[in-house]
Structure formats: C-alpha cells, structure tokens
Specification:
about 35% helix; six-stranded mixed sheet; 10 strands; two-stranded parallel ribbon; alpha/beta; Rossmann fold; about 190 residues
Length: about 190
C-alpha cells in the first residue's frame, strides 16, 4: 500500500468474519468475490485473509468468482448452480451487499432455508448490520465516518502546517451480529 493513506483493516476484518463462521461449526463455506476483472486492494486483502485462516484450520478455501464482469441475472444463475451442487457450502461470506442480495432468491429456488441451510455474512459500508428487505445480516461494517474524520483531521493539520508525513493509518472494522448465521444443519 502506498504511503500517506488511510484505509479499513480488511485483513483483520476478513479473519474475524471467517472465524465467525467457523465458531458455530461451518467447515464448508465460500468467499464470494466480485469478478476477476474488478480490482481493489480490499478484494485482495479479504481473499488472502480468508484463505490463510481456512488453511490454518486445515480446511480448503473456496472462492466463488466469475472470470469476467457478469450481469446480475447471470450472477444469480451462477450462484444458484453453486448452491445446488452436492458438496455445496453451508455458508457464504460476501464481498459486498450486491453479492449478498443474490442469496435469498437462489436459496428459495433450491428449497434451502436461510440461514438454517445457508448462513450468510457480508461486508458493507455503513454503521451496524446491513439490512436487506428487513433482514439484519451478520456483517462487517466498514467505518466510513471514522475514516473520513481521520482523513479530515490529518488534512487540517497539514493545512495548518502541523502535519507530518505518515505511512498509513489502518482503521478497525466493526462486526455486527445479525440474524443470518446459524449452526450448520446435519
């Protein structure tokens, strides 16, 4: 990461999210990422952290992601095929709410109960749990307000001539326990 930056701690947040699905007993779960052509530091940090935790506990990491940008109806079909597989995962960590929004429809078309048969956790920008159609998702909340306040404070110091160079400031994310993660069935 370049110097003079402020960013959320995606590495620790992805570790906490992964451990949050391991605690109730999930052993087969997937990290659902944006397409391969979508590039952002957070995407790489979250995948690396998820993969590391899974390997540390002796489980196979699974990444669900399209090779190229995929339209929403095609992403829904892709996710439906994935959760219809015989060795389907019992839970999913979504990179963002856009991916998480695919889960309920695909699960209902496959006669899966959510969260009983498919637990879900998502990252999102905002305070508290991500709300989708009245359901409070178990979430990793990216603290936009804290990031902005820290950045403005540094900018004000620099304008006043008080600011010194800094390498990077990492802001912790918040974990919000919602209603979308349960112990896996069977």
């Amino acid at each position: 990461m370049p110097s003079n930056c402020i960013h959320p701690d995606d590495v620790s947040a992805a570790r906490e999210a992964t451990e949050g699905l391991l605690r109730p007993g999930h052993e087969r779960f997937v990290y659902q990422a944006p397409s391969c052509d979508a590039r952002h530091d957070s995407q790489f940090d979250r995948i690396a952290s998820y993969t590391q935790v899974m390997k540390e506990v002796g489980l196979k990491p699974r990444i669900l992601r399209a090779e190229t940008q995929v339209r929403r109806p095609d992403r829904r079909r892709m996710f439906h095929e994935w959760i219809s597989a015989p060795d389907r995962a019992t839970a999913v960590i979504a990179y963002a709410p856009d991916e998480a929004g695919l889960h309920p429809l695909a699960a209902s078309q496959t006669c899966l109960n959510v969260p009983g048969d498919l637990s879900r956790l998502t990252f999102h920008h905002g305070a508290g749990c991500f709300d989708f159609a009245g359901t409070q998702f178990d979430s990793v909340s990216i603290p936009r307000e804290r990031l902005a306040k820290e950045a403005v404070g540094i900018l004000q110091k620099r304008i006043a001539g008080e600011g010194e160079s800094f390498n990077q400031i990492v802001i912790a994310c918040d974990i919000c326990a919602g209603e979308t993660v349960e112990r896996p069935r069977g």
